[in-house]
Amino acid sequence: RVLLYDTIPVFVAFTTFKILSSTDFSHASTLAFVFDVTGSMYDDLKQVIDGASRILEKTLNRRTRPIKNFVLVPFHDPDIGPVSITTDPKKFQQDLQELFVQGGGDCPEMSIGAIKKALEVSLPGSFIYVFTDARAKDYRLKRDVLQLVQLRQSQVVFVLTGDCGDRSQPGYRAYEEIAATSSGQIFHLDKQQVNEVLKWVEETVQALKVHLLSSNHDSAQENQWEVPFDPSLKEVTVSLSGPAPQIELRDPLGTSLEEGLTELLNIPNSARVVNLKFPRPGAWTLKVGCGGRHTLRVTGVSNLDFRAGFSSIPVSEFNHTRERPIKGVPAHVLLKCTGLKPPGQLSHMELVSGSGRSLRTLPVPLPSDSGSRGLWSVPKFRTPSQSFFLKVTGKDDKGYPFQRLSSVSYTNIIPDPPAVSMPKVVNGFYMQPAMIGCSVESDVPYRLRFTRSGVAIGEEKLFQFSGKAFWEIPHASGEDEGPYECIAQSSAGLRRALTQLTTEPPPVLKAPLNVSSTVGAVAVMACQVEGSMRHNLTWQRAGLTILAHSGRIRVLPNSFLEINEVQPQDAGQYQCVATNANGDSRVTVWLLVPEAPSVVVRPQRQAFSRGSEVRLVCTAAGSPPPQLFWSHGNMFLPNRISNHGVLTIRDALPEDAGNYTCLATNEAGTATQTVSLNYAEEPSIWVVKQVVMVAVGGDATLECRATGVPLPLVKWSKGKTLITCVFFANMAPLFSETPVDMTVDVGENVTLPCVARGFPLPTVTWRLKDGRAIISEAYSSDGTVQLETGHLLIQDVWLDDEGLYVCEAKNQFGTIRTEARVSVSGLEPPLLAHGAPVITTGISQSLSIPCMLLDGIPLPERHWTHNGNQPLPRDRSSPQSNPDGFLHILNPAAEDAGIYICTAISAVGYTSREIKLSVNSKGCTLTYSKGVSGEENTVKMAAEVGSEVILPCEVQGSPSPLVTWSRNGQPIPPVTAWFTVLPSGSLKITDVRLIDSKLYTCSAENPAGNVSLNYNLHIQVKPKIQAAPSLLKALIGQTVVLPCVVQGEPRPEISWFHNGRPVEARDTAALRIHRASLTDQGTYSCVAKNTAGQDTMETSLQHYTHHLSVLSTPAGSPFPKVRWFKNGLGIFPDQSEFSVAEDGSLVIGSASASHSGDFKCVASNDAGSVERKTRLKVNVPPEIQDDGQPLNLTVTLKQPLTLGCDAFGIPSPTITWTKDGHNVSHLPVIQISFLKNTKK
């Protein structure tokens, strides 16, 4: 037994994180808004809707568009979504406008899950903006989000108008970590300042955005940075977020830059962003300062940038890297640079902390290609345990220094234990080799071993990479069956997988025998399984199972396949499949149906001259495909035949003339055809004596000699002074060029070649074999013409040009013929476009009835009939048809109504289309409720959110008008979740929403006219004041803020009352009481009113002094020394929550329930001591604990339901349950029980 290992490296493809090409959509980004839709975000939403249109307009008008699509992720605890993804900016704005804020008072929120969803659906290198006024409730998802940020290389920016009041909570710290990792920032604003941030977003959503500097600081400090600006930077943006932000920028000459800076954002005590266009190349100095925790980002617009990929071994291809390093494994970095051309080069790569501090600097070697490929390899190093940015520095091709920073920070991948997998069952064949495979995926090196029944087999091996191992059993048998286990262990842990080896094989089929059958005979194909194992046997052809047990093709009881009356199309391969529980086996059986060959040789007769090349083409058909052989006389020619039966004679000699025979043969028979090949040689002539002298009366012999094949004929002629000898080579016609079969589209021209040689020169004529005459006129512009060369030109081919054409060449020594078939194609039957079967018009309303021709070759003719009359009258008052097929009816009358039929006819066929014309006379009339106010034909209506509204639109007309509704010009479907068009034509809107405040138009139309009515619907929302504490306690002299956050439409008017008396307040949303006194105690009422109703909230204000004193004033001489005890334990003055006043009283700084107990005061001097005991009880106001139960429940009808209310307070609070504002304690189906030690 041998243990084999086959290691296969596995690589993780790195994901692009930069927009490197403005023309390549594969690098385009997503603009994503993650929005909190709780009620307190109402003002934020209005500003985001307005700002989004400006962002989209600015982005889409840029020459390079960075945005490919838009994503909107609303969230409201406990729900996230629905997520909207679109490439249409208008649809994105519409989705924003349809958001509806609701509820409120819940802090924190499910914001991290919403960010995770946005990252999952967004493209790499995207812009994600989070709008909320609460910290995260689901901060445990932070790790998943950070991994997605590093994978997607996207930026996350937080726009916070609140944070639940405690920035030390994990829910807020998660925001900071996500922003720091993604090179994003957190902006703290008032709700009125959201619009200012959106103006900044307009400028920052850009293509070719690069990062220059990033730092995060937990405390107030001032920092100075030197940053090189290279010529490729078209603009630079400095963004500082934190309290009291200060930015100073000095150019390479040391001049402080005030002018030339564009201020994109300036929110006092929160953020400042400035922008500089086309900065001077060189080293710039940036000085920033903040009064507390702050973040700094410096970005630019440039085509010079880089991407980084990590690997555990050196690689030369970027797609062999991963997006993060692995903890504990030395990392190699491959940098892919764009916009950097030689001699420009990288010099160093620096690892930088989140605060901008350098962790390590590594030199970047110059690659062998001097960086022409844009790939730079950094030797291996160990990555730090903390997160880090990568900063590269170098010089461009002009020698200017530059630096770039990665868009995200990197953290190490904590490797998981190896992932081990094996098949559940390994099927082995008896006494055959069996391979037991084990696949392992691991980010770190691991050791692997096989075991059987807990006992190790073979040696343990060390692997560096993911791969696959095999345990081989050379000759598997029954004793090898059983469980086998593969165990892989790395520094991250141990994993194992189990498989079962079985040696019972699938059925084994005997070797098949192919079957040959003649046409009409019976063919039987056999298929047998070796041995006696149970099996199921089926036959298949072309992937389909043959199930028939009767008929021409059937499966016999012994599983043989029988085919009766065999046809040629039955020939081919058939598969026999044997199956049992262990698998299947299959063999292929071929059915051969022999067919005697037929053979055709072209040309039939051919002449050649010495040295020329002769080609004879032999084509044959038959089954199986016949073999072809050529012979010359009685001699076979095996060496001159090509694969396609072409006989080629090169450098022909006279002895090559003769008869050539093509023989086609297969098992069904043979076929032959013989052609004649004639040698021809042009005659040559010469005179033995140019001048012959003879005496008058004497004999003269004039000798004239000639050569040629065939032998020329000699003729003499005598002129006045010369006797001419002319030789004629008597030669029967031979074709030197013959026509071939051709297929021609209608309307095209075709030329059939036919050239003959011979002596005398043969006459070439053409005719159709069926006896039809060919009309030939020289130089005719159409029809059929025979050219001077003998070719036949058929112009503008038509149907009657199809046929078998015969070319005949004739002289006194013989006649030869050749044939060629012309087939006419491209014919299409007439096809008319489908249209409305019924057309309606009004009297005197002229119209055109279309009869559009979609197809038809040759072009069909169109004819119209009206009520069976054909043709239509031609007088001007009657319907007229034009060449385009339209039927124009001027000033139609009632008698023009009826059935119109358009018929298209051609030589290929015909088709027709029937249209019914109705002529109506009564138009639309529309009625609606009277007494409404508004402009003419516009009705103003108001409705309350959640109610049902019916917009009347009762229409009359003949025929019945078609009623349609639109909202702000967009059509409304007849039935949707909210809208229903009633049979009367009125529009019913159920459960109206705030976004339903739109202009609605009812349009009624019939052929006689149309009419419309507008409704201006204004949706009102009763004022709803967000819940606030009913009791406030404040120190005397403290500033007290009584909140009154209200929603409503139209915007409610807010009034304040103190003990029933009006109070003047500048900010109606919050009543501020400066330096509160005892006279300010009492009940404060906030009343919000609008046209939809009003809401009232009352808050009681009580004052108290800051300290709680446990009084015990001692006296004595000398003045006694005072000591305090609680529950028997001494109280020391240095305890933070206790202090002792000069008169000996014990003062508790901020009383809580833990301070309740028995206190004892002991006063002592030289004369003695005395003590006094006091019991302190601290009351705690009621508080309902969050037990994690969802606020919204879905339950089953008639099933019990328990609602928890975990309340705490001292003394124990009284709990009351209400439903829809009514007490439920008296209802028989509701039982209120109090659990032990709780108030549930």
TrEMBL record:
CDD domains: Ig, vWFA. The keyword Metal-binding does not apply. Transmembrane segments: none annotated. GO terms for cellular component: extracellular region. It is found in: Secreted. Residues 864-884 are annotated as: Disordered. Residues 417-502, 506-588, 597-678, 683-718, 733-823, 829-918, 946-1014, 1023-1102, 1108-1177, 1182-1240 form the Ig-like domain. Pfam families: GBD_Hemicentin (PF23560), I-set (PF07679), Ig_3 (PF13927), VWA_4 (PF25106). Keywords: Disulfide bond, Glycoprotein, Immunoglobulin domain, Repeat, Secreted, Signal. This is Ig-like domain-containing protein. The lineage of its organism: Eukaryota, Metazoa, Chordata, Craniata, Vertebrata.
